[in-house]
Amino acid sequence: MNYTFRVPLLVYSTKVTPVTNHIGETVFGLARWHKSYFSLTKRYNFKVIDTNNRTIVSAEMRDKHFKNPSWDITYGESLENRIEMWCKTKSPTHPRYYFYFSGFNYKIIKNTGDKKTFIYNQDDKEIAQYTYSYKGLNFITPLYEMTTTNKLDIPVEVLICLLRCYDTSSRSI
Fold first, then answer.
1. In this structure, are residues 79 and 58 in contact, taking their beta carbons and an 8 Å threshold?
2. H or E stretch including 161?
3. I need a surface site. Which of 48, 73, 83, 128 has the fewest CB within 10 A?
């Protein structure tokens, strides 16, 4: 399955970005959120909103420093389930992040000069690929596309949120 979205031009914007599937219909929305007016400098908090404007996934950056950031990601009907994603990057050119989901270890990897980000399961099998490209007349904001495999244990909205957190933080390391 393919999912695409385009982020807002303003970095601190809380505007909801529609995420569309391969047919072109909006499946859910992706937005940045802030705890208060004074926390505008934290631009790494994201949430995924369903078509009824209910938050189904929420990601909050836990660490204040950027050396090894980590996130607390909550998801589900009442946001009762929790995932922790953390950075194990040794070199800024090869960012590596890890997270646990349902007792299994997953890793997010992006290589230098490559526009593709991959999620691998504990057996080193690729389960999702995340790319960005500049298409059409829009040269400022890239078009993000996530392609998933047929057998997927992780909900798509959680993957979108994980990859958006990863992509935003890996650009600032």
1. yes
2. helix 156-170
3. 83
How many Å apart are CA 40 and CA 122, to the nearest integer? 36
Q: How far apart are CA 158 and CA 138, in angstroms?
A: 27
Q: In a 3-state reduction of DSSP, which class is residue 130?
A: strand
Structure tokens at 90: 């040794």
* CATH for the stretch 2-170: 2.40.160.200
Q: Which CA distances in Å does 21 have to 41, 64, 131, 157?
A: 31, 34, 15, 12
Separation CA 80–CA 8 (nearest Å): 29
CB 146 within 8 A of CB 2: yes
* Model confidence, pTM: 0.81
Its sign, for the CA torsion 13, 119, 154, 80, is negative
For the segment 120-170, what is each residue's pLDDT rounded down to a tens digit? 998 999 999 988 887 666 667 788 888 888 778 888 888 888 888 887 766
Which 3 state secondary structure label does DSSP give 112? coil
Q: Which amino acid is at 135?
A: K
